[in-house]
Amino acid sequence: MSHQNPKLSGAKAVTVETLQEMKRAGQKIVCLTAYDASFGSILDEAGVDVVLVGDSLGNVIQGHDTTVPVTVDDMSYHTECVSRGVHRGLLVADMPFLSFATPDRAVDAAVCLMGGGGAAMVKLEGGEPVLEAVRVMSQHGVPVMGHLGLLPQSINQLGGYRMQGKSKAGAERLLRDARSLEEAGARALVLECVPADLAREITAALGIPTIGIGAGPDCDGQVLVLYDMLGITPGKKPRFVKDFMAGAGSVREAVAAFASQIRSGAWPERD
Ligand code: KIV
User: Fold this and answer.
1) How far is the CA of 247 from the centre of ligand 1 (A)?
2) Which of 60, 131, 162, 219 could form an S-S bond across to 210 if both were Cys, CB 3.0 to 4.6 Å?
3) Within a domain: residue 4?
4) Confidence band (pLDDT; 50, 70, 90) for 160?
């Protein structure tokens, strides 16, 4: 799917290879979620490298308590909407709950998200149980982003949104899963709510870039849920979230501040 945006003509599109080069060059990767064309366009014009159509849309758009009810059709619809506003950034779509429970199901979901939705990459949660799906999709030309640490789709099993990998065994398992995902073909990895030291260790151990959320400053990039960083998500926000609207004159300014603070290393701060 190709969309020409005159404002951005000449801007080089971000690819999975670009993310790899950014890791090699030590340039921070800026990632935010979007769920519609207008916000997608604001993020793109602000130079956000990765625009993630997160299944967090189950919370912030649909009003559910968890991401569990989100379907492939929901993801495909919102990905297609966002794709109309994004011309430079790498468009990544989340694979929703159980859509990758088998390699066949994962391939079918990837067809919808990439073929129908226009995503350039898919993201899926989990370690060992998803390796075969990652392997099969990668072998068939689907760029895959892994997601380890706090897995919101497993919230009913976890029993709460808390930091993962705090015990020695938990940390070892996360490092092992991260290595296995890379070996299975994953091209990038989100680390959610893991201790900063562990995120640094995983980032150093992998050739592929890591993108952190509540995982300290030493990941190769950072991501937040857009509505969290704009301060409009109702209820209590996670400790690691910064409200970039506070002090900004517009959404555009808030997104620009987010990008520049990540690139300069000013945010996230070291504990
Ligand atoms: O669904 C989502 O928005 C995500 C990010 C928080 C990483 O997975």
Assistant:
1) 25
2) 219
3) no
4) confident
Question: Which residues are catalytically annotated?
Answer: 192
In DSSP notation, 13-82 reads PP-HHHHHHHHHHTPPEEEEE--SHHHHHHHHHTT-SEEEE-TTHHHHTT--SSSTT--HHHHHHHHHHH
Bridge partners, residue 155, by sequence: none
Among protein residues, the one with the nearest Cα to ligand 1's atom 1 is 54
Q: How many domains does the chain have?
A: 1
Region 112-141: mean pLDDT is 98
CATH of the domain at 157: 3.20.20.60
Q: Does any domain span residue 146?
A: yes
- Please say whether the beta carbons of 30 and 259 come within 8 A: yes
At 9 the pLDDT is 55
pLDDT of residue 10: 64
pLDDT at 159: 86
Query: By residue range, what is the domain housing residue 84?
Result: 13-264
